[in-house]
C-alpha cells in the first residue's frame, strides 16, 4: 500500500499490515477515518476481502494509525463473511452494508465499526438486499449520512 503526500507531491509506502501475506486481502475495502469531529486521530481501516491463497472471504480488520505509523488488528467483522460490500467512514465510524455470503445469498444487513472502541454494532437492515452496492457520504449541517446506492439482488 502506498500513500500520496499531496503537499510534497510524492508517494510513500506504508508498512505491511499484520497479515500472513505482505499485501492486503484481495477485494478488501478501505476507509479513511478522521475522528468523530474531524479533530480525532486519523486512521485507515481495512475491512474484509479474500485470502490471497485460498480465495476464501475473511472477517479481518486492520487499523493503521497515522500518529503512531503502525498497524493493529481490529475486532473481526461479525456475521456472515461478506464479499463485495460497500464501506466508508462517516463521523468517526466505518459503515459496511450489503454484499453476499458464502452461499451467494445477497445481504441486507449493515454494520458500524468504531475504531476508538474497537467494536462493531449491528445496524437496522436495509429495505432490500444489495450485492456490490456503492456507498456515498453526504455531509450537511455538520453531520453525515451514509447512503447505499446501486447493487443488485441475487439468489443462491
TrEMBL record:
A Pfam family hit: Kelch_1
Membrane-spanning residues: none
Biological process terms in GO annotation: negative regulation of cytokinin-activated signaling pathway; regulation of phenylpropanoid metabolic process
Gene3D superfamilies: Kelch-type beta propeller
InterPro entries per record: Kelch-typ_b-propeller, Kelch_1, KMD1-4
Protein's UniProt name: Uncharacterized protein
Amino acid at each position: 500500500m502506498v500513500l500520496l503526500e499531496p503537499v510534497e507531491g510524492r508517494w510513500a509506502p506504508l508498512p505491511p499490515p499484520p497479515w500472513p501475506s505482505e499485501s492486503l486481502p484481495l477485494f478488501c475495502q478501505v476507509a479513511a477515518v478522521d475522528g468523530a469531529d474531524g479533530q480525532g486521530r486519523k486512521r485507515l481501516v481495512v475491512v474484509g476481502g479474500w485470502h490471497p491463497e485460498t480465495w476464501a472471504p475473511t472477517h479481518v480488520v486492520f487499523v493503521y494509525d497515522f500518529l503512531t505509523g503502525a498497524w493493529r488488528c481490529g475486532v473481526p467483522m461479525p456475521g456472515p463473511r461478506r464479499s463485495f460490500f460497500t464501506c466508508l467512514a462517516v463521523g468517526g465510524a466505518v459503515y459496511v452494508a450489503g454484499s453476499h455470503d458464502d452461499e451467494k445469498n445477497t445481504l441486507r444487513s449493515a454494520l458500524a465499526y468504531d475504531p476508538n472502541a474497537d467494536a462493531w454494532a449491528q445496524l437496522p437492515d436495509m429495505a432490500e438486499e444489495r450485492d456490490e452496492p456503492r456507498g456515498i457520504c453526504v455531509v450537511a449541517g455538520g453531520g453525515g449520512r451514509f447512503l447505499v446506492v446501486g447493487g443488485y439482488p441475487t439468489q443462491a
